[in-house]
Amino acid sequence: MTPREKALAEFRAWYESLPRPRTAGSAPAKGSIAVGLVLLERLKSTFDLNLASHLAPGGAQIPGASDAAVKNILAGFGEARPFVSEGGRTNRGTPAIAQSLLNAIQSADLEALNEVERQAVLHELQALLVDKVREFHNREHLKPVFDPARSTRQFMSDFLALAEETGKHGPLAQYLVGAKLQLRFPQADVRNESYSVADDPSSQPGDFVVEDTTFHVTVAPTPGHFEQCKRNLQEGRRVFLLVPDSLLAGARQNAELAAPGRIAVESIESFISNFIELKAQFSAVAVERILQQLCEHFNTLVARCAPDEWLTLEMTTISDRPLILES
Q1: In terms of Cα–Cα distance, which of 46, 95, 41, 44 is closest to 72?
Q2: Quick check: 323 and 315 in contact, CB under 8 A?
Q3: Are 215 and 240 contacting, i.e. CB atoms less than 8 angstroms apart?
Q4: Which of 35, 161, 190, 262 has a beta carbon 3.0–4.6 Å from 88's, enabling a disulfide?
């Protein structure tokens, strides 16, 4: 096997080993891809496989790893669409990601190549990452279609069912609830967590917190969720547990066993659709507008809390005309 073939094999293995969110079918974090692009660019200039040579004082960042640097690298491959806003500077896993990539390249014996040959291999490795960036931009968005002739609640139910087919109903449910809370309480500090973090019911007080109330959102309630609800109550908090309508009866029974009369269990579909109807004052035209606002809040929330989960909504009406966002 030639050094180039070794490099390609080791690099693909490195990419597959990168951490991924728990969402089904998810890809590595965009920050991880950015780290790879920038580190390969540095190796083109100075082929130094010592990690310390690529870390800034403090050991957590790669010098020059900015959104502008990533943008310039992508532009060199003809990819002009924006990809990251932080480059890789704030990725806490940067040193480990960089070290594993350096190990992979070292295993390929690229030192045996002359500079021109080595540069060509490094460029080829970057091209593989650029292809992953293109996959990100070309990914299938969730595209719910709103039919004004059907109820808002049915729309939410159909939407969650559509997302379930691609394994995205978990994060979709969570971020829709977060978007609803932020839209309802625009001045409030709605504390929230990434789905890949909040999916562990034992690691956080809840998915969302508003004032003294904690919200748990799950498409698969477990005993751990009810234990977390009990801990929230012991801490003096009020608790909402939001589940799919199909699981509502069972979840309410379990909540009564865990803490009789103290856990508010509601369906995700009703929790969101009732808010939309009330805010729209039961106007069909206003419902469309508020659904688009919910979509905008959803995308903003994902971009802020979990940009690496690659989840975006593009909502249209039954006539395929885009919903119009009005202030």
Answers
A1: 41
A2: yes
A3: yes
A4: 35
Residues in Cβ contact with 268 at an 8 Å cutoff, skipping those fewer than 6 apart: 156, 160, 173, 176, 177, 217, 219, 242, 243, 244, 245
Q: Where are the alpha helices (DSSP H) in the chain?
A: 3-17, 30-45, 67-76, 94-107, 115-137, 152-164, 169-184, 195-198, 223-234, 248-258, 268-279, 284-305
> For the segment 251-301, what is each residue's pLDDT rounded down to a tens digit?
999 999 999 999 999 999 999 999 999 999 999 889 999 999 998 888 888
What type of residue sits at position 150? R
Domain extents in the chain: 3-137, 145-317
Phi, psi of 70 (to 5 degrees): -65, -40
Distance CA 307, CA 85 (A): 10
Model confidence band, residue 163 (pLDDT cutoffs 50, 70, 90): confident
The H or E element containing residue 213 is: strand 213-217
Q: What is the CATH number of domain 145-317?
A: 3.40.91
Amino acid at 275: F
Nearest to 266 by CA among 220, 217, 228: 217
* Contact between residue 324 and residue 292 where contact means Cβ atoms under 8 Å apart: yes
Distance CA 19, CA 22 (A): 9
pTM of the model: 0.59
Percent of the chain with pLDDT over 90: 53
Question: Residues near 198 by Cβ (< 8 Å), separated by ≥ 6?
Answer: 174, 192, 204, 206, 207, 217
Tally the C-alpha atoms within 13 A of residue 306's C-alpha that lie toward its C-beta.
28
Q: Which of 85-89, 120-124, 259-263, 273-277 has the lowest average pLDDT?
A: 85-89
Q: What mean pLDDT, rounded, does the chain reach? A: 84
